[in-house]
Here is the input.
Amino acid sequence: MKIVNIHEAKTHLSRLVDAAARGEPFVIAKAGTPMVKVTAIDAPSHADQRRLGFLKGEISVPADFDEMGREEVERLFEAGP
Here is the structure.
């Protein structure tokens, strides 16, 4: 994510706001310390975004997962057109 200092943000505010509206959020920093994040109003919130691994520990994959349905798949391929 792009980080801009306050002076640069004031100088290029229109361009930065246009970019944020297109889905390119940015952070405004003061003396190198991030202060605020600027995003589009309709951007999904952190809670709305999909998270990888959110079901970790909730489901299990059977040990024979790679073998499940093997006979049917072989039968379908051997059947021909």
Remarks:
- Helices lie at 6-11, 13-21, 70-79.
